[in-house]
Amino acid sequence: MKGIVFTQLLDMVEQEFGYGLVDTLLLTADLPSGGAYTSAGTYAPHEMVSLVTTLSAHTNKPVPEVLREFGRYLFKSFVSTYQHFIVAAPDAFSFLSSVHAYIHVEVKKLYSDAELPFFGIERCDEHTLRMLYQSNRKMADLAYGLIEGTLEHYGEKATITKNMIKADGSEVEFIIIKQCQRTPDLPLAT
C-alpha cells in the first residue's frame, strides 16, 4: 500500500484529535515499519488495518465509520494534489467513471508497484451509477468515503447503497443515485 495513504491518515488524525493520538497510534499499533512513512514508500496493508483498528478503539468509532471519514478526508487531499484529474471531469459521475480506466492507469505509471482496487462501472441512466469494488484489502468503506467526498466536491447529492457481493468484503457493489434538482413550485398566474 502506498505511503501517501498512511501519511494522509496520520495527518487526518493530527488535525482532528491532535498529535498525542498520532503518537499513541504509532506506539500501540502493530507496525513492522515502525510507523516511519514516506508518501512514495510502500507498506504492508496489515499496517493500515492495524492503524485504523487502533484509531477505532481510541475514538470509540466503528472501523467502517473511521474508514468512511478517512475516505472523505483523502479525497479532499487528492483535490489539491491531483487537481488535473478532478478538473478534467465536469461532474461526480464523470469523475467516478474515470477512476479505474484513466486515473488508476496514470497512478500505475507513477507507482508501478501500486496495488489498486478494481472498479467496474455501469452507468445505468443519467441519475444512476453502479460501481463494483474488488480488492483483497477489503476496504470498501474507504471507497465509500471517497465516493462521498467526490459528491461533496462537485456539490451533488445522492443516495449510496452498499451491497456486499462477497461476505468477506473483497467484492462490494455501490449503487449511487443522484437526487434530481427540483425547482420550487411557482404560484400559478391568475
Model description:
This protein has 190 residues and is α+β, with helices and mostly antiparallel strands. 51% of the residues lie in helices and 16% in strands. A four-stranded antiparallel beta sheet has the order 1-2-4-3, with helices on one face. The mean pLDDT is 90.
Largest sheet, if any? Answer: 4 strands, antiparallel
Low-confidence stretches: none
Task: Please give the order of strands in the largest beta sheet.
Answer: 1-2-4-3
Beta percentage is 15-25%
What is the helix fraction of residues, given as a range? 40-55%
Tell me the structural class: alpha+beta
Average per-residue pLDDT, rounded, comes to 90
| H-E order | HHHHHHEEHEE
- The total of helices stands at 7
N-to-C span: 65 Å
How many strands appear in the DSSP assignment?
4
Large-scale geometry? globular
What Rg is obtained from the alpha carbons, in whole angstroms? Answer: 18 Å
